[in-house]
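Following up on my earlier thread - several people asked me to post the actual chain instead of describing it. Fair enough. Here it is, all 880 residues.
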Amino acid sequence: MPPSDVADREILPDNIKAINYDISIHDLEMGGAFGYQGTVNILSKIVKPSKDITLNTHEIKIHSAELLSGDKSFKSTGTSYDSAKQRATLAFADEIPVAENANLVIKFQGTINNDMAGFYRSKYKPTVAPAPSVAKDGEDHVMFSTQFESCDARRAFPCFDEPNLKATFDFEIELPDDQVALSNMPEKGTRKSKDGFKVVSFDRTPVMSTYLLTWAVGDFEYIEDFTKRKYKGKHLPVRVYTTRGLKSQAQYALDHAPQIIDYFSEIFDIEYPLPKSDLLAVHEFSHGAMEGWGLVTYRTTAVLFDEKTSDSKYKNRIAYVVAHELAHQWFGNLVTMDWWSELWLNEGFATWVGWLATDKIHPEWNVWSQFVSEGMQTAFTLDSLRSSHPIEVPVRDGLDVDQVFDAISYLKGSSTIRMLATHLGQETFLKGVSNYLKAHAYGNATTNDLWSALSEASGQDINSLIDPWVRKIGFPVLTVAEEPGQIGIKQSRYLSTGDVKPDEDTTTWWVPLGLQGKTGTKGTTSIALTQKEDTIRDIDDTFYKINKDNAGFYRVNYPPARLAKLGSQIDQLSTMDKIGLVGDAGALALSGQATTSGLLAFAEGLQSETDYLVWSQILDSLGTVKSIFSDNQEIHAGLQKFTLKLITPAVERIGIEQKPDDDFLTTRLRSLLVISAGLNGHEKIISEAKKRFELYTSGSDKSAINSNLRAAIFGIAMRLGDAPEYHALKKEWQTTLSVDGKEIALRAMGRLQSLDLLPDYLDFVFEEVATQDKHTAGMALAANPKTRAAFWQYIQDNFQAIYDSLSKNMVVLDRFLKTSLSKFDSREMEQEIAKFFEGKDNRGYDRTLGVIKDTILTRAAYKERDAEVVLEWLKANGYA
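Reply from S.P.:
Thanks for posting it. Predicted structure:
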């Protein structure tokens, strides 16, 4: 039977609809091939008579299938597989008639793979003696868990694997007596099975999408706390599970999760919908975390924290990721997008509300400034390319969706939501969200459903305001022209290549101006630009600023004299304003709409800055300039001298010693300034870093490097070192017990300067480093001018092997290529990369190849255009 075609998507035939899955997984092979047997009984409604049933399977072998309807039994006469579309079709000799209730019983076998998708195994080295039955994979022990988003439930059991084919789930699994099984719902019962094994069953789930089903088996232990609020008369149990020996590192996440559940229950005005909330640390994980309903799975660095050995920056990550995933328990799980084209509804919202909850618990972290500096700038970078895509993007079939888990869906999505929430006021906005969730609970919804609920709550036509932001590609830059007492503003699409063609600039965005400095008004004037150009009168010529707190997702191009004046008025600017101005100046220099000298002069005015997030943006914007001119020795040396002069007062003020009363942001600032000073030639910092590195790695004083300074000191030592430093870091990677230690050592090793060390590093990355972390090495080698070209040569020479090892999980391969190839800055390299991939089957990373192309062309155009100007400015100001 041909697949049903909704105009923009290829979906399963609609002759049958699942109501409930009863899944039994048994006979797990605890080693060797890691196979298992399964039975699924799908209670279904037969909607149309037919002689075949098509469902999704991937790497599953079906043994038998039988459909029971009333008193009749229909045995399948055979199964045909379409592996490209990940489908199996069951054929029946007789036509199956329409029926309200029929049971489709399928016996099958699958594999507990090592691809971080479907039902899979994760390797780890236990810190204490594990339970006797724990399986081994080579030298390592393993735990088992699932990752079903987007389309990998079909790797674990035959199912109708589309987000709007919701059903309820009963689940049971056979496992060794001395291990623990977890799933979405509380345990229903345990019964003895064959010798040394038990079968654990779980309560029935609410109606939900297949991708949210989750289970895990392992040598788990947990710590537990309870919510303050009562749910159905009881405080809700919240647990964080780890493999044995690690539960003490789960405390930080557990301190946050119950508070966050209560906060969301309150602001959504809907109680948390399940009887428990579990968080599980998984040793190998493709993403950051996955929002299984009632059982959320995390990569270890996103949920575990050791007060003694972890870098405190991971506290910020854990608090936010826990909040993001718990937000999904309502927005995504209770109400699910209708189809993958609206993935942004899940991810953009969870990102915004995740930061909202983090800000509620940690106001001292100033997370909205962090969002402006990290989240928005990342979204701007991707959305300034021709190869960007709208927030809501057509997805032909489920296999196309993985590439949409990107900065547009998450970060442009959340920036758009933040802009709208600022415009409406948070209370009105959340009222609309609550109405949307109540109206569509346990069902699916579209972007328009959200706009309707927000329109009703606010009395405004939200669709007309926000639609271009969601359905059109790109964002505007506002170019400002000044006349006495007034300004002219013109909006046009921003492209980082600076060469927008008329047919690419047809969108007129609704742009909330957030204007400060209108004569006779205090604070911010709420007006919007709703046409291509407009004039705003009564402007205070001494001080005005557009886009207060960077609430709007757009860039502003001020006349050069105004930007310089704002640089001298920093006491009138918020942290978010400063970050936005630096980010805009850097981006407009990149596209040629402003000059690099404007960015450098503005940065000079911020020398006395003490805020970590502002420094982070300054050094990030300067880093882009330095990276692009890294092979021009004169410019590179001049930029180093400039950076060193800029940061020296700040780094000498903060010093290299951690102080007992340092707060979170001070700790982050020290780490940032120390590595910047060391890499730009600050002699005192360099000699201190080398001394501490030697004491630490020789084992004579492990306290010589504070855990928050490992990344900085390792990075300086490797950049200025050679083989001894490299081997010391490799040993650190092999022996560290810190949850973040491998990630930090791996990144630092990628700063190697001698190409003699590169073959060893690459062998090490592809033979020893976990698949989930390979892109970390790719990122380091691509950012390193010494290794970039040789690394690309290695990718070409070994592409088939790299493809074979990473493509079992396309998310991993896609991310690896994106991080490894985006730092070139010549048109020749763009051509060379394009030629290499020409004629290959690039499905699964074809969007990324477009992003790589546009990124390189942007960098190349900038380099060609600005080299002389930059050198001239550096000479005129005594840096070159």
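Confidence is low (pLDDT under 50) at residues 1-5. That should answer part of your original question.
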